Amino acid sequence: MDADRFLTHSLQDPRITRILAAAIEAVEPGGIVRQRLEKTALPEHDRPFLLGIGKAAEKMTLAAAAFYKDFTDALIITKHSLSALDENPLTRIAERVTIMEAGHPVPDERSIAAGQAVLDFTSRVQNNDLLICLISGGGSALVVVPRKGLSLTDIQILTKSMLANGASIDEMNVLRCQLDLLKGGGLAAATKAKILSLILSDVIGDHLDVIASGLTVPSQQSVEKIQAILEKYNIAKLLSSSKLKIVVSEKFANFSIFDRLRNVIVANNISALQAAKEKAMVEGFFTDIANTELQVVNGQTYRRAKKLGMSAAEYLSRNDSFPFFDLLGDLLKPGYTGTNVNDLIFLFGL
């Protein structure tokens, strides 16, 4: 990756831009999938199918398709495709490879269509086949199959409310698992085939049931935990009593159906951080990794924003950092990276 793509008004040090480039290169989806597949023994199977879901799904799935040239069919659900798409929701971008775009972070009608496409796809995968899932962040909104009695509108309202109230990704995905048939292991339950799920983690701690709401990870949340989230964000009032009963009810009665499943983390934030650390040492920095969650606007940026009448706290409360940094000339615009493992904070003493 060209390190100059990271230059901004405030960031002009080429050593730092090279460090940032190294971090992103370490989690390039195609490369990490190829590396993992080269050392992964597959279970015995008849036909292999590829299913990619998430913001990094296109690169991950195409890398798997190039590695397993005898795959039967592939479906990709992503936010923005690198390929030229036609007017049809499903576009064939290569032999045996179909792609769809859907809504994120709030699901839309395309997400419903994508959810149905996933169910149609998995219905073709038989007991003796192998389903290779390639999952990355964003899958929670990109594919949606509401539980019976719930609607897309219900899910949209709850998602918007939790986003507006600053809910953590863990809290949001606990609720998403209860709203949707595919979440919390529902995707895995939709087929009787053997499943290998390669997961690109954008979640601190790599909690498998949180990444893309655990599409291939069986998860049964306690009623108490679900109710606590509903009460914390005062959102129970957004649903009728009959719909609330659905949200707190169990999804799976038999967890033995997941015995044929293997979930593997292929890369995460630590992968990017470690690559950045190694590059920083090469660049002459004394380096250490502080494994924590921070939200940072430095003093210089804060003062410049204040002079322009911009409130950093207000933009942060709206999850709207793009225009804030863009107006200041400090927005990183490296172009399409194909990965969403990029929530990294660097502190440099120069």
Quick rundown:
With 350 residues, this protein is α/β, with parallel strands linked by helices. It has helices spanning 14-26, 29-38, 57-67, 109-123, 139-142, 152-164, 169-179, 186-189, 223-232, 241-247, 269-282, 299-307, 312-317, 321-328, and strands at 48-53, 73-78, 91-94, 97-101, 130-136, 194-200, 261-267.
Structural key phrases:
alpha/beta, Rossmann fold, 2 domains, 7-stranded mixed sheet, globular
Q: How would you describe this protein?
A:
This protein is α/β, with parallel strands linked by helices and 350 residues long. The protein folds into 2 domains: 3-25 and 271-328, no CATH class; 29-267, Glycerate kinase, MOFRL-like N-terminal domain (Rossmann fold), CATH 3.40.50. 39% of the residues lie in helices and 12% in strands. A 7-stranded mixed beta sheet has the order 3-4-2-1-5-6-7, sandwiched between helices. Strand 1 (48-53), helix 3 and strand 2 form a beta-alpha-beta unit. Helix 2 packs parallel to helix 3 (57-67).
